[in-house]
Amino acid sequence: MKPRVSVIIPVYNGIQYIESALNSVLNQTYKSLEIIVVDDGSTDSTLDVIYARFDEIINKGKLRVISNYTNMGRCVAANKGASSSTGELLFFLDADDLWHPEYIESIVNFFDANPDVDIAYSKPSTFIGEDGSIIRRTKTVVRDLEKTVYSCKIGFPSATAFRKNAFLFYNESYRYREDIELLIRSYTSGLRIQILDMDKVYIRQHNNPSRMSLNKDFFRYTIKLYNDYDDCIPHKYKPYFYMHIASVAFKFGELKVGFDFMAKIFKTRPGAFLDIEYSIEVLKRAVRIDRFISNMLEDRI
After folding, report:
1. Distance of alpha carbon 157 from its chain centroid, rounded?
2. Pairing between β-strand 126-128 and β-strand 201-204 as defined by DSSP bridges
3. Residue 119 and residue 158 in contact, taking contact as beta carbons nearer than 8 Å
4. Domain ranges across the chain
């Protein structure tokens, strides 16, 4: 029988975590699934670990491995996995994240009970460190779906499940921020997104500066996101979009860019700053002058 769920795991040099990620899927209470690992040109022993530790389920056909001969980026890897999937529901798992054993079953039950929903986003509340220990838990409450989407507060691939016929594929012109881009594009295309508070997705955080959220390209693709979508976002939600852009700019020491977007907020709707739930992060980062100084010194080197 064809599995109902396809789990896609893009991986690049993931030797440290790939076994844990795969076990996280294999330990799910929901069993009607296939696993597709897309190795994106890894130069470490990721593939050796997969074939050595999971040869039995590979031979049974439950786990398929697709290999890119060169590193083509997470978007290409994820899209390749989706294109080869057979399930009617698509789940994505970053190779360093983990799922609670009941995560897939909970989402499948939700889709069954809500046939009009296209995308289910399980808001992560638990963040783990490189050793798997819990770093922090959050208790944010989603009160406004559109604010949440347009302020870029959702996007983790490991927390996002799609009906396959509603998956628009990742935009391969993005090397970073592709998760946010896909959800904004999906929402503005008329697809229905539902945010769930389950605490069944565990996101790993890293200290390595080469990781995505600490890489300067993260900022550059955030600006691309603005250039691509500013005209698509309803006027009343633009301030929340600009808050996110400004916050990322301040994070990377791009003080001028950050204050330019703060000015856009004042021009569009200054009262948005009173919405502390959304403005607190950008206001806190705006006073981090040390990042601006660091950025200036970096430019001089």
Report:
1. 4
2. parallel
3. no
4. 5-204, 234-300
DSSP sequence for 187-200:
HHTT--EEEE----
Q: Which H helix or E strand runs over 89?
A: strand 89-92
Cβ 242 vs Cβ 268: under 8 Å: yes
Comparing CA positions, the residue from 205, 215, 125, 202 lying closest to residue 158 is 202
Is this model's pTM higher than 0.70 or not? Answer: yes
Q: What is the pLDDT of residue 195?
A: 96
CA distance between the termini of the chain: 60
Q: Are 196 and 121 in contact (CB under 8 A)?
A: yes
Q: Token pair of 242, please?
A: 């600009």
Q: Cα Rg for the chain, rounded, in angstroms? A: 20
Left (φ > 0), alpha (ψ -120 to 50) or beta: where does 144 sit? beta
How do residues 135-152 score in pLDDT, each as one tens digit? 999 877 778 999 999 999
Fold exhibited by the domain 5-204: Spore Coat Polysaccharide Biosynthesis Protein SpsA; Chain A (3.90.550)
**178-191 as b/e, with b when 16 or more CB fall inside 10 Å?**
bbbbbbbbbbeeeb
Q: What are the tens digits of pLDDT across the range 174-217?
A: 999 999 999 999 999 999 999 999 999 999 998 764 555 568 99
Which residue from 120, 300, 289 is spatially nearest to 200, judged by alpha carbons? 120
CA separation for the pair 155, 184 (Å, rounded): 9
Residue 34 backbone dihedrals phi, psi, to 5 degrees: -120, 150
What are the helix (H) ranges across 68-177?
74-83, 103-113, 145-150
> In whole angstroms, what is the distance from residue 128 CA to residue 123 CA?
15
Encoded amino acid at 28, one letter: Q
